[in-house]
Amino acid sequence: MATLNVKNLPDALYRRLQKRARDRRRSVAQEVTLILEEAVGRPDVVSILELRGLGKDTWRGTDAAAHVEAERRAWD
Fold it and tell me: Which in 8, 24, 34, 66 has the greatest CB count within 10 A?
């Protein structure tokens, strides 16, 4: 597992971080890990069922078969 060192962290910010961790019954390291995970962590997993209708406005009025055929001809 990697180690992260943060230099020049303002004392007031560290105290707030300590309080937040204490309030949640975590160590500062655990709290920082959770904050970073929320900020830059894994993207939300989306079910295929949630994608239903995605992009329908973009394709409104387009003949799907004609579009596919035109795409295929463009690659020949």
Answer: 34
Q: How confident is the model at residue 16 (pLDDT cuts 50, 70, 90)?
A: very high
Query: Among positive and negative, which fits the CA dihedral 28, 35, 23, 45?
Result: negative
Burial of 32 (0-12, 13-18, 19+ CB in 10 A): middle
Burial 3-17 (b: 16+ CB within 10 A, else e): eeeeeeeeeeeeeee
Backbone angles phi, psi at 53, to 5 degrees: 85, -5
Mean pLDDT (whole number) for 17-45 = 92
14 has a pLDDT exceeding 80: yes
